[in-house]
Design brief:
The structure holds two protein chains of two kinds.
Chain A (H helix, E strand, L loop, with lengths): L12 E4 L23 H12 L3 E7 L2 H8 L12 E3 L3 H12 L6 E4 L3 H10 L4 E3 L4 H5 L11 H4 L1 H17 L4 H7 L2 E7 L5 H10 L12 H9 L4 E10 L2 E12 L8 E9 L8 H15 L4 E6 L6 H9 L3 E5 L5 E6 L12 E4 L7
Chain B lengths: L2 H16 L3 H5 L16 H15 L3 H4 L9 H11 L1 H5 L2
Classes of the chains: A alpha/beta, B mainly alpha.
């Protein structure tokens, strides 16, 4: 019995083979005009995964046109995000799913009845959790497939990926400049002080974000709850995003210590984290700017931030560089302390295409 | 590669990742900031730039330049690459 998946990182997407996995038989061998009947047990699993915030995709070696018509049959329509149906190797299809969803390759599971295809993906992409259909039921009970908590955002994740696909398709067919496109999206970013209601989502962001997570530190719910409650000492901001394609929910948060060791007029951003889905739209910069504005309003002369250097979070280091932070120290555990002067250099403005909403309570 | 030819390649890579006309970026002075009001790189386009730089110059700025100081201006990036890329050694 396999046990390797017991220690696998959390799965965010399951990539399914079609022929002899999702249904019995081979679609192209069916009589013209008839579609294969999807295996109801697999459909149940897909529905259960979606409830846990795990989306499904497809990697099938078939004629792309056939794939399109198969995936539009009523029992399957809308169930898959970023499906890949083509003649290319499955490892390439799986890699493309990760790229299109902008998630790490190790957050994918791949299910295929063919030992050859499983071996090809396992060889080319060793970080992917590769399973046969027979191995799947046991794997589903493992930690990798069981998020500790399922937030509203998580159970709507498939919808959000679909909105994201729609956005991407609109971007590809958009004739004007990228700035014009971003303006046409009508993005609204609402940044507010977190409440008790945000606890689950903040916990989840701390677990799931990597590329845009400054320290990668994990927090217990208790630690986060006390940070949200202690308004005197702490500032916890959450950012929610909507655009004309949909509601993405809470996509980022910042934990700020207003009384860190050291001078009284310097705050410390102990954690800044954002969902990687929002990259490339000025949103990380907007969240950090909001923190800097709060610090300025409280007469701080500088904002400090902690971050760590790891193989995945280069985007957040670039964000700190973008916003003018300078490294001023490093502790024995490798955590870097950076600072941004708030008095001399002006803050970069919010991007012009982004409507930033700051309800009054966020400032209190 | 000379410092000037490195700076020219840096400008070409910037034009490519920012989807700006090459002629526009060619005219910018060395002192132009890469982030903020200058060329407005962000975390995503910055990542693309570093990937392109690594491919072309063999320099892994992300692991060698902790503070990403080389990414201040066009000139600092060209200067950093002139001092660190393999081609600068072979041309000596």
């Amino acid at each position: 019995m396999r046990t390797d998946y017991l220690s696998h990182p959390p799965i965010k997407c399951v990539v399914w083979d079609l022929d002899n996995t999702l249904w019995r038989g081979v679609a192209v061998e069916e009589e013209a005009g008839t579609a294969p009947e999807p295996d109801p047990r697999i459909l149940d699993i897909i529905a259960e995964l979606e409830k846990r915030g795990i989306v499904s995709s497809v990697a099938s070696r078939n004629d792309p046109a056939l794939g399109k018509s198969l995936l539009s049959i009523s029992t399957l329509a809308g169930k898959f995000v970023a499906p890949q149906v083509s003649w290319e190797p499955k490892s390439q299809a799986v890699r493309r799913v990760a790229e299109q969803l902008n998630i790490g390759i190790d957050s994918l599971a791949f299910v295929d009845d063919s030992a050859f295809e499983r071996a090809e993906v396992a060889y080319m992409l060793p970080a992917v959790l590769v399973l046969s259909p027979e191995e799947l039921p046991a794997a589903l009970d493992s930690v990798a497939f069981k998020p500790a908590l399922v937030t509203d955002e998580a159970s709507r994740r498939a919808d959000m990926y679909r909105a994201e696909e729609e956005r991407r398709a609109a971007e590809e067919s958009f004739a004007g400049s990228r700035t014009d496109f971003l303006r046409s999206c009508r993005m609204r970013l609402t940044i507010v002080a977190a409440g008790e209601d945000d606890l689950d989502r903040i916990t989840e962001l701390a677990e799931r974000t990597h590329q845009l997570n400054s320290t990668g530190r994990s927090y217990t719910r208790k630690e986060l709850r006390s940070r949200i409650a202690d308004k005197q000492r702490r500032l916890v901001l959450v950012a929610r995003l909507t655009d004309r394609f949909g509601d993405y929910g809470t996509i980022g948060a910042a934990l700020v210590d207003k009384e860190p060791p050291g001078p009284a007029d310097i705050w410390l951003a102990e954690l800044v984290m954002l969902s990687c889905r929002v990259e490339g739209r000025g949103i990380p910069a907007a969240l950090l700017r909001a923190v800097m504005l709060e610090a300025q309003a409280a007469a701080c002369r500088a904002l400090r931030a902690h971050y760590r250097v790891n193989e995945r979070n280069l985007p957040i280091r670039l964000l700190f560089r973008q916003m003018g932070f300078e490294v001023i120290g490093k502790d024995t555990e490798g955590t870097i302390l950076a600072a941004r002067d708030l008095l001399s250099a002006p803050l970069p403005p919010y991007p012009e295409w982004l409507e930033v909403v700051r309800p009054r309570e966020a400032c209190e | 590669m000379t410092r000037e030819s490195i700076a020219a390649r840096v400008r070409a890579l910037l034009a490519s990742v920012l989807e700006k006309p090459a002629t526009e970026v060619e005219q910018l002075p060395d002192s132009t900031p890469l982030f903020g009001s200058g060329l407005s790189l962000d975390s995503l386009t910055g990542l693309e730039l570093l990937t392109a730089v690594q491919g072309e110059f063999g320099v892994d700025i992300a692991s060698e330049d902790l503070n990403l100081d080389s990414l201040r201006t066009i000139g600092t990036l060209a200067g950093y690459l002139a001092g660190h890329s393999d081609s600068s050694h072979t041309s000596l």
